[in-house]
Amino acid sequence: MASGAFPRPSTAYRIADLAARDEEVLRIAEKRSADRQHAQGKLTARERVDLLVDPGSFLEFDRLARHRCADFDMDSHRPYGDGVVTGQATVDGRPICLFSQDFTVFGGSMGEVFGEKVLKVVDLATRIGCPLVGINDSGGARIQEGVVSLAYYAELGRRNVLASGVIPQISLVMGPCAGGAVYTPALTDFVVMVDGVAHMFVTGPEVVAAVTGEAVSPQELGGAEVNSEVSGNVHYRARDEEDALDWVRTLLGFLPANNLDGCPVYDSAGAPALTATDLALDTLIPDSPHQGYDMCRVIHAVVDDGDFLEVQKTFAPNIICGFGRVDGRTVGVVANQPLHLAGVIDIDASEKASRFVRFCDAFGIPLLTLVDVPGYLPGVGQERAGIIRRGAKLIYAYAEATVPKVTLAVRKAYGGGYAVMGSKHLGADVNLAWPTAEIAVMGADAAVTILHRRALRALDGPEREAARQRFVADYRKRFATPYAAADRGYVDRVIRPATTRIEISRALRMLRDKRQETPARKHGNIPL
Ligand code: HXC
């Protein structure tokens, strides 16, 4: 009887009903979203996903999830998806999990259902072992949902931490990212920000003005420029959203899916004989020790096709970090850059390189270190800001790393700089040096000033200068070479610069199956 009064909906009706729900999400809501986002020069959450992943590969989850909040009249508006698009897809045929916040729904803010959706993909990425990409464009914790929103941020942070070193985690910041919400991108391995539209700060300009009296715009406080050049929170400052997503696709191509997986291997085009680029290395080092040169030329000569993806390019440019391939296999390159501050290690350089080294080690990516370092940066500012504690991070990172480590001393390798930049003593497997390497406690001028102070003080005018020059020449000849280190086996091979690419390729091939165990422990205690 009941079935006559309320006929069971037909299968055709049910299929049409599903289509209507999908229509609401994918066309009607998406159109509303596009109108609002495009007016602000931004793409929609779905357009961003489309640009990131392989066409047709996106498998969306929880498209029809809706919030359960009744406060603030919220139950009158329950849009599908709850302000975040989540799912699984492929990039260049390799799986990723992703979420993309939709600023046009409750400001892309995190509520309970939003949080459940995000946690589901983070958990899935960790379980199946694939990279997680999070696209951020949000007003932060959903004010209407109160403490529940905060709980989900903390839950997400906990999962980011548990996934750290297990799967690569990449964040894109494409709109606002404020308050405690900044800490979820900050906990991930790489952060990409879009210039001009995105901003990221713990407290916004209004609170800053009220508390400290400082007047500052959102861009000045937390735009892509300041976060990539000054604070170091950001690894790539993108021109626009397409550029940001393109960079992430390229980055993913260098990385393994997880810590137990290998990096993708590409066909190698490495020439067996010396090329013109190789030969040019023979004349790269200027005869004057005070003259700089671009370390990128060495990197480009070594990596396949000169293809190098630099991370944090504009932060601490005195040290270069990035990914390339040798024989088609990913390497992480750390190199001093003599063109900036003579390649000295300061606090920022130490922290930048330490984090990079630890990422490579966590994901089994061999490390190639190119050295031209006059030492740690002297100065009251550096000492007071903690160069002892913060400079120690780099020693910790290198010493802890068990991946294949190949180091090449190009020119200066002085003092603490020598020790820390992938020295044999911190566990490098193969140490190479060019004949132009100067491996010593310090440079000739500084050494002579200390060692011969008394003798020089006893002389006057031209005699003093002539003696100083003699002492400097003598020191250079005896100590500013790779041979004292080679004498003791601290350098395995002194090589002609032109053979660098071939030597490094042989060393990395030899180390391909390296295994190194370390004592069991809960975790170390890196100086933070
Ligand atoms: C609910 C929000 C929201 C939020 C924005 N909206 N933020 N809804 N919760 N947190 C809504 C707005 O009400 C508005 O809805 C729509 O999103 C667009 O917001 P506008 O203010 O019109 O946009 P805009 O002028 O571009 O300003 C963007 C903004 C601003 C700078 C992000 O909205 C803002 O300051 N929001 C609050 C940011 C904040 O303080 N969040 C809490 C951070 S603390 P309508 O319906 O009008 O379109 C945090 C704790 C994390 O996140 C804890 C970690 C442990």
Automatic annotation (TrEMBL):
Q: Which Pfam families match?
A: Carboxyl_trans
For the biological process aspect of GO, one term held by this record is: fatty acid biosynthetic process
Q: Which PROSITE patterns match?
A: COA_CT_CTER, COA_CT_NTER
Q: Name one GO cellular component term.
A: acetyl-CoA carboxylase complex
Q: What range(s) does the CoA carboxyltransferase C-terminal domain occupy?
A: 276-522
Matching entries from InterPro entries are given as: AccD/PCCB, AcCoA_carboxyl_beta, Acetyl_CoA_COase_Trfase_b_su, ClpP/crotonase-like_dom_sf, COA_CT_C, COA_CT_N
Annotated ranges, domain CoA carboxyltransferase N-terminal = 14-267
This entry's Gene Ontology molecular function terms read:
acetyl-CoA carboxylase activity; propionyl-CoA carboxylase activity
Membership in a protein family: Belongs to the AccD/PCCB family.
This chain belongs to which protein, by name? Propionyl-CoA carboxylase beta chain
